[in-house]
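Bug report (template v2)

What were you trying to do?
Predict the complex of my protein with NDP.

What happened?
Run completed; filing so the output is reviewed.

Input:
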Amino acid sequence: MTYLQKIIDDVKLKDPDQPEFHQTAEEILSTIEPVLNNNSIYVKSKVIERLVEPERQIIFRVPWVDKNGELQINRGFRVQHSSAIGPYKGGLRFHPSVNLGIIKFLAFEQTFKNALTGLSIGGGKGGSDFNPRGKSDLEIMNFCQSFMTELYRHIGQFIDIPAGDMGVGEREIGYLYGQYKRISNTFEAGTLTGKGISYGGSLARKEATGYGVLYFVNSMINYHGHSLTGKKVIISGSGNVALYSCKKAVELGAKVIAMSDSDGYIYDENGIDFKTMHNIKEIQRKRISEYVNYFPKATYTKGRGIWNIKCDIAFPCATQNDIDVNDAQALIDNGCFAVGEGANMPTTNAAIKLLLDNNILLAPAKAANAGGVATSALEMAQNSARLSWTFEEVDSKLKEIMKHILK
Ligand code: NDP
């Protein structure tokens, strides 16, 4: 048995109920053998054994009161994975599927992604099994305040800087930061990123992950002699990453023909209208199925199946394991030539192998979606300097960072 296989086996033995963490550990460890062969010091100093064990894992109770006055109890998590090159940095996910294994996988991936940006940020991730779907603003506020009442003691601008992820956007960051400010009695803006512009947020942060994915994929396909002009694109999800991927894809000349949520997907052969989709999802906070009320020629289909639509480029921007081997085969059969991972670990390891074996260009998540965290670091820089940069300044820095990552 090889050295790396033994580490993977130990990881599985120690935490047998964490399949997503096993998956990411297997994916990363299976690629680093050449590095270890040339650097025996890494083996001697047990760098890999350290990497698969987070520095700290925090689990806490989150009691909160719902709109009927009933007490609800959720579980909160923060995994502080690595502070080797800077303070822990990574988002918070509110989704019913959240458990320790999922937060551990995300924190592990975050450490590599953050290092790739070239900025001095370590890796962490957190969240809760709280389901924000259908909750009122008041319930969201109650939950966020209770969540922060415990989390605040573990974070800080030089310790650990959370941000958004699934189910956590500008509204939630606002409630979280407000509570942090009250408890800590400081205006320490650099403790959370993804804030509103009026209290320390950065222009272009909201757009950064999606825009970064498109900058990365555009450069990658240009290098291989392709362009986005006229390309048919599918984007899974319709949240923060998906929406701003859609906006930038259209700006760069592509046509976005399908998008989804966890209930189903929209197909519009004329190209999805970003403004309408943004209004439905971000302003009205409704389901994607509403889109056909504005564009009757578009169709809505319940359930999975978005990857069976013929396209040139696929952007999985929803959640982990969105593209399995069957989906990958459908993409290949339909002539898709590139996949840009906007979500974290959206492609199973078997599907990645199939795509690569068929010479599909693959922009891996740890590189392609790093624009979000990189721009969070730019938000921290502005907070430290007590300055606000223009949208164009931040966007041009984001472009440079994505270029640097691709190189
Ligand atoms: P959001 O909560 O804003 O959006 C998530 C979207 O994915 C929603 O449309 C949701 O639909 C959909 N979705 C969730 N589960 C499924 C499913 N099983 N099938 C189809 N669609 C699904 O999250 P983000 O856009 O912020 O995050 C999306 C991904 O990008 C995640 O993997 C996240 O970790 C990653 N990411 C996010 C960054 C950021 O800056 N926000 C940075 C880097 C990575 P529904 O409303 O039905 O749940």
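What did the reviewer find?
The two ends are 34 Å apart (CA to CA). Residues 164-167, 209, 236-242, 260-263, 317-319, 342-344, 369, 372 surround NDP (CB under 6 Å).
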